[in-house]
UniProtKB/TrEMBL annotation, chain B:
Keywords: Cytoplasm, Phosphotransferase system. It holds the Pfam family PTS-HPr. This is Phosphocarrier protein HPr. The keyword Cytoplasm applies. It comes from the Bacteria. General (non sugar-specific) component of the phosphoenolpyruvate-dependent sugar phosphotransferase system (sugar PTS). This major carbohydrate active-transport system catalyzes the phosphorylation of incoming sugar substrates concomitantly with their translocation across the cell membrane. The phosphoryl group from phosphoenolpyruvate (PEP) is transferred to the phosphoryl carrier protein HPr by enzyme I. Phospho-HPr then transfers it to the PTS EIIA domain. It comes from Microtetraspora glauca. It is found in: Cytoplasm. The keyword Cytoplasm applies. Residues 1-85 form the HPr domain.
Length: 562, 85
């Protein structure tokens, strides 16, 4: 039988095994006027059982999560079992309305009541919509919307395609593998999977028809997807995967090409939880310390002491090494209550964010820089500070000034706006170093919103236009005697990492899990091979052709199953 | 008809945890229990959605009512929950 085997393109190596979870973004509204067959009592019982099922799932999730989440989820379970809701459902079903439509309309009634009660209940309205969608999905036999919450075991995430918005809240430990029906080797799914170290197969025809819960074995190297495999087959695949990891683990030490050209491999750190994995993976420092975790989901900025303690924890963990801190990158997809944009923004990605926001709130920047300077005192970490979203020389100079005032000797800028890459030589004259942010650089170079799933095809760092911008920034930095690191998710692609080294990028920073593969890929190729791969990629006129051309110059990737 | 008139003292009003505790307690009663806010018709005290939609804030007064033998003990418990700081 061939239906138990599917095939796609392996884009993130490794073996993954677990129950399939089909990602659905929205549950369609049951059509107005849909009726049941005539047995109102049976239909009412069906609706009741679906609501009980949703309540039981919510309570079970709460019990697994414990703490505060238990209370929140118990309250949501109470909503599903609400007697007022049940009587509206019963009344509608009594009039002949189908169970899914009756549930939808009954929730609608309470939704209007809560929405009318003011801002305070806005969060409850979102909860109610979620419970409604779960009940309707249960009745219609559809997969539940969104990512599984607190799954009991790692699952295989199956989707038509994945957009950054779908995966922002993804817990990498909870995912065994990704399988998407669409997408290519350069899609967001592929980049994300590599940066998380999760095996992935894309362009897999028939993937979205895999019944939810089916146990799936995914080979992220060959692209094979096996449904309900035998136990021996799973054990064999997992053993081979462990052997491959062991082979990669034999490549240790600082990042360097085969001929000894050093390319320091650093880790992206977004909070205290990322420190241990980064150290375990042999990171030579931190290339991107995101500080948003201190600021998100709160009404007031963190205190000076709170900031200082959090920074010092990272500096001490990496004593003697480089730690590149990005100051708060607020705005766009990361709005903060206490830093509202000065005016409503029709397009936040092109609005007040990053360093632009600090021009309106210089005190918040001064407080952060001061906390960083104090935290750096007494540690041996080489602390460097950089500003996000710099477009002009004037902004770069303003930020360098602010850092000097705070007593921070090393300040730099992120290159993520095409204008900054195009005029990198001017910016290099007023700043200490560059760090290229490929996610935003790609978004802005191709004018393709990262949040827009339909534009996934354009959000591709292999695009020669993006590679050209990287090359401009790296060569301007070299001419000025400055370092030019790179810290986007693209650095986690072993082939792109070699291309970036070939373009003159001086260090690569990525999710810790991606480090062993990138280290092994660099170690097997000379700097000259990397340069040839970079030139071959830039000579092409599409992302796909650029990738193929670069890989042709990097033969050891295939030997390493990368 | 037994009733209790109480001022809600919790900082979050009759929302979040106080609302959940209030409704869970009311749900144990074998008889109907209602809760009303001044100027708003009474709602089923066993319905979390109705109680939330009542949107009772800190400092507002509510009337909890039941029409049954032996409702006093339950109403006292509900009044205590609603008036707890």
């Amino acid at each position: 039988m061939s239906a138990d085997r599917l095939a796609g393109v392996g884009v993130s190596p490794g073996a993954g095994y677990g129950p399939a979870h089909r990602l659905v973004r929205e549950i369609p509204e049951p059509p107005r006027g849909s009726r049941h067959g005539g047995d109102a009592e049976a239909e009412r019982r069906r609706a009741e059982r679906a609501l009980e099922q949703v309540a039981a799932d919510l309570s079970a999730r709460g019990d697994r999560a414990g703490g505060e989440a238990r209370d929140v989820l118990a309250a949501q379970a109470m909503m599903a079992l609400d007697p007022g809701l049940a009587s509206v459902v019963a009344e509608l079903v009594g009039q002949g309305v189908s169970a899914p439509r009756a549930v939808f309309e009954a929730f609608g009634k309470y939704r209007d009541l809560l929405a009318g009660a003011g801002d305070y209940l806005a969060g409850r309205v979102a909860d109610l919509d979620d419970i409604r969608d779960r009940a309707v999905a249960t009745l219609e036999g559809l997969p539940l919307p969104g990512l599984p919450q607190d799954p009991p075991e790692p699952y295989v995430l199956v989707a038509r395609d994945l957009a950054p918005a779908d995966t922002a809240l993804l817990d990498p430990v909870a995912v065994a593998a990704f399988v998407t029906e669409e997408g290519g080797p350069t899609s967001h799914t592929a980049i994300l999977a590599r940066s998380l170290g999760v095996p992935a197969v894309v362009g897999c025809a028939g993937a979205t028809a895999i019944p939810p819960g089916t146990r799936v074995l995914v080979d992220g190297s060959t692209g094979a997807v096996r449904l309900s495999p035998a136990e021996e087959e799973v054990a064999r695949a997992m053993r081979a995967d462990a052997d491959q990891d062991a082979l990669l683990a034999t490549v240790t030490g600082p990042g360097a090409t085969a001929d000894g050209h050093a390319v320091p491999l650093l880790a992206n750190v977004g909070g205290p939880a990322d420190i241990a994995p980064a150290l375990a993976a042999g990171a030579e420092g931190v290339g991107l310390f995101r500080t948003e975790f201190l600021f998100l989901d709160r009404e007031d900025p963190p205190t000076w002491e709170e900031q200082q303690d959090a920074y010092r924890a990272v500096f001490e963990a990496f004593s003697g090494s480089r730690v590149v801190v990005r100051v708060l990158d607020a705005g766009a997809d990361k709005p903060l209550d206490f830093l509202p944009p000065p005016a409503p923004e029709p397009n936040p990605a092109l609005g007040e964010r990053g360093v632009r926001m600090f021009r309106h709130y210089p005190d918040v920047l001064a407080a952060q820089l001061d906390a960083l300077a104090r935290a750096a005192e007494g540690t041996s970490a080489r602390v460097q500070v950089m500003a996000p979203m710099v477009a002009t020389v004037e902004e770069a100079a303003w930020f360098a000034d602010a850092c000097r005032t705070a007593g921070l000797p090393s300040s730099g800028v992120m290159i993520e706006i095409p204008a900054a890459a195009l005029r990198a030589a001017d910016i290099a004259a007023v700043t200490g170093f560059f760090s290229i942010g490929t996610n935003d650089l790609t978004q802005y170079a191709l004018a393709a919103d990262r949040e827009a799933g339909a534009l996934a095809g354009l959000q591709d760092p292999w695009h020669p236009a993006v590679l050209d911008l990287v090359a401009l920034a790296a060569s301007a930095a070299a001419a000025a005697g400055r370092e030019c690191g790179l810290c986007g998710e693209a650095a986690a692609d072993p082939a792109l990492a070699c291309v970036f080294a070939g373009l003159g990028v001086t260090s690569l920073s990525m999710a810790a899990l991606a480090l062993p593969r990138v280290r092994a890929a660099l170690a097997r190729h000379t700097l000259d091979a990397c340069r040839r791969a970079a030139a071959a990629a830039r000579a092409e006129n599409s992302a796909a052709a650029a990738r193929a051309a670069a890989r042709a110059e990097l033969p050891a990737l295939a030997e390493l199953s990368l | 008809m037994a009733e209790r008139k109480v001022t809600v003292m919790s900082e979050v009003g009759l929302h979040a945890r106080p609302a959940a505790t209030f409704v869970q307690t009311a749900a144990q009663a074998p008889f109907d229990v209602t809760v009303a806010k001044f100027g708003v018709p009474p709602v089923n005290a066993k319905s979390i959605l109705s109680v939330l939609a009542l949107d009772v804030r800190q400092g507002e007064t509510i009337v909890i009512s039941a029409e049954a033998e032996g409702a006093d003990e339950l109403l006292d418990r509900l009044a205590a929950i609603a008036s707890a700081p």
